[in-house]
Specification:
- By secondary structure, the chain is α/β, with parallel strands linked by helices.
- It is 35% helix and 15% strand.
- It has 12 helices and 15 strands.
- Strands 5-4-3-6-7-8-13 form a 7-stranded parallel β-sheet, with helices on both faces. A two-stranded antiparallel ribbon has the order 1-2. It has a two-stranded parallel sheet with strand order 9-12.
């Protein structure tokens, strides 16, 4: 999933760059990548698949020299968004998997993974079908979870999912794996803890990230009717954490205080990227099918989160909190729709029953994942480049800070007014 920081996130425009295939590119031309503007540019630096990755398997470059991966028995698996984030981590894992004979890495530029077949394509381009020749399973990870322009993000995410499903059917791909999020269940103060995987999808169909993912889920639900014979699996991770991932939840822990609302006890569940990758490998192999959730076992209470993170809470009335967020959103200070804020203050813990019954267990627990996140954010803050004040205000944890600060000012003003 495309959860890189805003400064390195790929541009989402309405233009579709013509697809390309560098399977048979000349050696002299393999050092360049093609951007969305059609100009050659250097390939991006490597993104690690996750902190403490002991389960991702050996990189493809570690295979014995001269080994032909196509000769190994197993599936041919294509991965969209393979040059970055989750797609990169999954490609590394599957390149060393005995279940997979060949990995077809699809992105708009080449990544740094050896031992895979790179095919250049824009996931919104119908020509993607031509890049799926010989593919058995397609995993779609190229989902934009950014918050800088929700209209462009929605257009990209929905168009990409539509194209992926149609192209897979046209290319006779037998199974498609879509990665959404447990956010599709919605975050509510009265949610049961944990939510069953079969619980209704209660996310609001608005301009939020969850709204985008809900649209993708609806496409998946319609796929058996529109594309009979093609199986679709939907994987819903809890709050995703890992090296190089920058999301609404991870940025929440950049704040100096943790926002909570009166009358509701938050519960926190995380999913380490390594655990998601291992679950996706089972989905690719068909060992787990249907729609299922991925995450650490159990959850953390707010007091545990505060102890591990070293951050204290600030508790505000729900009406004041969401009303302030709405006003800040209208004037461009708080970038995301207010419903995204619900995922920071209300529970959306999921029970990973399907994976558990398949014998899968997460390698990481919630406490360890949160501790790793806090360590990574501390390093990030220490080494972060200076960015323009406006960009910092809009894209960083300052959004939550703005809600807290503004709401506190409003509350203090109301108290003074009552006292006069």
């Amino acid at each position: 999933m495309s959860t890189a920081p805003a400064e390195v996130r790929r541009e989402r425009t309405g233009k579709i760059r013509p697809s390309g295939d560098d399977d048979h590119a000349k050696a002299a031309g393999r050092g360049a990548a093609v951007g969305k503007n059609g100009k050659a540019r250097s390939a991006p630096s490597a993104r690690k698949s996750g902190r403490g990755d002991t389960s991702a398997g050996p990189p493809a470059s570690a295979q014995p020299a001269g080994e032909d991966s196509a000769a190994r028995p197993g599936l041919v698996v294509a991965i969209t968004g393979a040059a970055h984030g989750l797609g990169h981590a999954l490609a590394v894992r599957l390149a060393g998997s005995a279940r997979v004979s060949r990995v077809v890495a699809i992105d708009d530029h080449r990544g740094d993974i050896a031992g895979v077949t790179w095919r250049l394509a824009d996931v919104r381009d119908p020509a993607l079908a031509g890049r799926l020749t010989g593919v058995d399973v397609l995993v779609h990870t190229d989902v934009d979870l950014g918050d800088s322009d929700y209209r462009a993000r929605r257009a990209f995410n929905v168009r990409a999912a539509q194209t992926v499903l149609t192209a897979a059917a046209a290319g006779r791909v037998s199974r498609v794996v879509l990665v959404t999020s447990a956010m599709v269940y919605g975050a509510r103060p009265d949610n049961p803890v944990p939510l069953a995987e079969t619980a209704p999808l209660g996310a609001d169909p608005d301009g939020s990230v969850a709204g985008d993912l809900l649209e993708i889920e609806h496409l998946a639900q319609r796929a058996p009717r529109t594309h009979p014979g093609m199986a679709v699996t939907v994987v819903r991770p809890a709050a995703l954490v890992g090296d190089g991932l920058d999301t609404m939840v991870t940025r929440h822990f950049d704040s100096s205080r943790l926002l909570t609302v009166k009358g509701c006890a938050p519960r926190w569940q995380f999913c380490h990227i390594d655990d998601l990758v291992s679950a996706l490998e089972l989905a690719v192999a068909g060992e787990v099918t249907g729609n299922f959730a991925v995450g650490c076992d159990g959850w953390l209470e707010q007091e545990q989160v505060e102890e591990i993170s070293g951050l204290r809470r600030i508790e505000l009335p729900a009406g004041l909190t969401f009303g302030t967020a709405q006003r800040l959103h209208r004037i461009g200070i708080y970038p995301a729709p207010i419903n995204d804020l619900q995922y920071l203050v209300y529970p959306w813990v999921v029970d990973c029953q399907t994976l558990r019954e398949a014998g899968w267990r997460p390698a990481h627990d919630n406490a360890a994942v949160l501790a790793a996140l806090m360590e990574a954010r501390a390093v990030h803050r220490a080494t972060a480049r200076r960015i323009p004040r406006k960009e910092a205000t809009i894209t960083a944890a300052g959004a939550t800070v703005a809600v807290i600060g503004t709401a506190a000012i409003v509350r203090a003003a109301r108290r003074r007014k009552r006292g006069t």
